[in-house]
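Entry 12.
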Amino acid sequence: MAERAARSPSLLLRLLVGAGLALLIALAVVGGAIDRVFTNAAESSMRERLEAVVYLILSTVEVDETGQPLIPESLAEPRLNRPGSSLHGGAMTPEDEWRSPSLVGVEPQPNARLIERGTELFRGLEADGNWNVFAIGLGWELPDGEIIDLTIWAAEDPNRIRMELAGFRGDLWRWLGLAAVLIIAGQVGLLLMILRPLRRVSAEVAEIESGRRQGIEGRYPRELSPLTDNLNALLAAERDNARRYSEALADLAHVLKTPVAVLRARLESSEPSRPSDLARHLDEMQQIIRRQLERAQRSTRRALPAAVPVQPILERMADSLERLHVENGLRAEVVGEAGLVAHMDERDLWEVCGNLMENAAKYGNGRLRASVRAGEPGLRRNGVIIEIEDDGPGIAPEELDRLFERGQRGDERRDGQGLGLSIVRELVEASGGRLEVDTGEFDGARFRVILPPR
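Predicted 3D structure (tokens):
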């Protein structure tokens, strides 16, 4: 797997290849479109030139009574008079034809023919042949009133427009190539700047792995904030779990000192020990180990817990308590906003709500209310507040510290509400929240579990 990851191309290379391909495709499409537009424009310009020559010849042509076209020796277009030029023209009737002096010595010559009156003929770049031709068909009235066909045409060497297009295309693709190089260079710089935060994250993670850093501390773009925040949450959860396991092992070692010392004393004493006594001590040690391991497991926290609906848990717990305390006439009320969720392990949430509601049912006078409401808003998830209150005698302020005090004895028995409050506080704090106690509307104790937003 490590070799496969090493062979995997980097994000920079992937982005450059993708952006380069997209750029080349875009430039090819743009270049093709520009070339097509210029070609059409050049062909249209060529048609206009030939059409102008045709109308120039038409403005000077005369046809005698025998049907022979007569053109002045000198025309306004010099290229028609210069032999070997690339522009030629002519006029023809069924009887005879005239061709411009520029065709002297030119081979092959344009294949001119009569066309129908009132029509035009144009052969451009895509037409077969050696000449680009424009011609119009007319009817000419002779002095005797007869109307004969007259075709006037102009032709141009296609090499002229081909050379013009070749020069344009060379300049076009050179400039597009230069633009591609500049754009790719800009993309490289931009991608390096965009990917710099990722390289910083990678460097900080490497420092965390080497023990030189405790978390990701740099300021990062908003898009990377969920990544860095979750990494810090995972690291904090890992350190917190390691600390809690270490404390649990220290507690276990501490509470096992006395039973182990007792067993050693019994074994080293001269008085024989009964098997039942040894079995009882071993059972006590086994129970201590089980409780400490369960406590360590409960105290661990997940950095990214799932969302658990709160109200269904409160309603099921209230229904169970009413059935259990039916002889006392317990009334358990559940109020709050439906659909609120707590980002907490589901078993932990059950234990928190169960312990608090069970204590409220046990130490109250028959009335219990559990409620859930939205807490502070957050960017990725909102906070939630769970309140459990009863109509009992309440808790004196001076008793709170003792009730929540972290004990060290093996059985961990406490006055007041015993183990439940200590477990609740540990689970709530493991989820990043806090537990508060005050006097509720029923003049009894009200416990408030506050889970913070993110």
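Annotation: The radius of gyration is 49 Å. Residues 1-5, 406-418 have pLDDT under 50 and may be disordered.
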